[in-house]
């Protein structure tokens, strides 16, 4: 129940932040997600050990909302299940047609061969599908990384 309440509070915080800006149609994703990550760290008592590195990117609000919820799930999961450092980064591709979100930690990640069936995994899967994105995971000697590659809307 606490987990569901935390998700509802995250959604409320996302909407509050989005709609207090000067233009509700466009979001400066770098500033928005950095603030969100700081808030998650504070809420979970883990402000130390989190490293964020976001490139300046502006996106439509209807893209920022599901992306913020993905970040919320991935960062919360990393903090709950792994040791610092927790690294969250976002970079546009050289062609500027996609953006890559990366969340990594010093943990082992999920057990190999064990399907991810938790609520968080289902939420991330649905939101990634909504964004038309794809998810890749890597397990290395330095920890676990989740990368989400999101197509950016064509510039008009």
Assigned CATH architecture = 2-Layer Sandwich
What name does CATH use for the topology? Heat Shock Protein 90
Number of separate strands: 7
Our measurement of the CA-to-CA distance between the termini, rounded to an integer number of angstroms, reads: 43 Å
Strand order of the largest sheet: 2-4-5-7-6
Q: Catalogue the unreliable spans.
A: none
CATH superfamily: Histidine kinase-like ATPase, C-terminal domain
With helices defined by DSSP (H or I, 4 residues minimum), what is the helix count? 4
Average pLDDT over all residues: 85
Give an overview in words.
The protein is α+β, with helices and mostly antiparallel strands. It has one domain: 2-Layer Sandwich (Heat Shock Protein 90). The chain is 42% helix and 27% strand. The protein has 4 helices and 7 strands; from the N terminus they run H-E-H-E-E-H-E-E-H-E-E. The strands form 2 sheets. Strands 2-4-5-7-6 form a 5-stranded mixed β-sheet, covered by helices on one side. Strands 1-3 form a two-stranded antiparallel sheet. Helix 1 packs antiparallel against helix 3 (61-81), helix 2 packs parallel to helix 3 (61-81) and helix 3 runs antiparallel to helix 4. The chain is globular, with a radius of gyration of 15 Å. The mean pLDDT is 85.
